[in-house]
């Protein structure tokens, strides 16, 4: 979802910064770290963090499967030996 659309939808309820983070595989973690950092520093009282990745193009998904980044089953097993 476009960050500006979300901000405009809830502008009467929430105030403060609205960001989109694009840091490849670490985008959600980076967004969470930034939220925690801003709360700890007193810049905001609370934060909403969301993240997702969509494999919408079949060739992109096949390339990730061939490289061993994704699985054919869709299951995440980051600590498997293979």
Automatic annotation (TrEMBL):
Origin superkingdom: Eukaryota
Record flagged with keyword Lipid biosynthesis: yes
Pfam families the record matches: ketoacyl-synt
Keywords assigned: Fatty acid biosynthesis, Fatty acid metabolism, Lipid biosynthesis, Lipid metabolism, Multifunctional enzyme, NADP, Oxidoreductase, Phosphopantetheine, Transferase
One of the GO biological process terms: fatty acid biosynthetic process
UniProt GO MF annotations: 3-oxoacyl-[acyl-carrier-protein] synthase activity; fatty acid synthase activity; oxidoreductase activity
Residues in Beta-ketoacyl synthase-like N-terminal domain copies: 13-81
Protein name: Fatty acid synthase
Organism field: Nephila pilipes (Giant wood spider)
């Amino acid at each position: 979802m476009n960050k500006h659309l979300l901000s405009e939808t809830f502008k009467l309820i929430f105030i403060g910064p609205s960001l989109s983070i694009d840091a490849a595989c670490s985008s959600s973690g980076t967004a969470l770290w930034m939220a925690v950092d801003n709360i700890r520093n007193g810049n905001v009282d609370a934060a909403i963090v969301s993240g997702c990745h969509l494999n919408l193009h079949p060739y992109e998904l096949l390339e990730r499967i061939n490289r061993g980044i994704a699985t054919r089953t869709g299951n995440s097993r980051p600590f498997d030996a293979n």
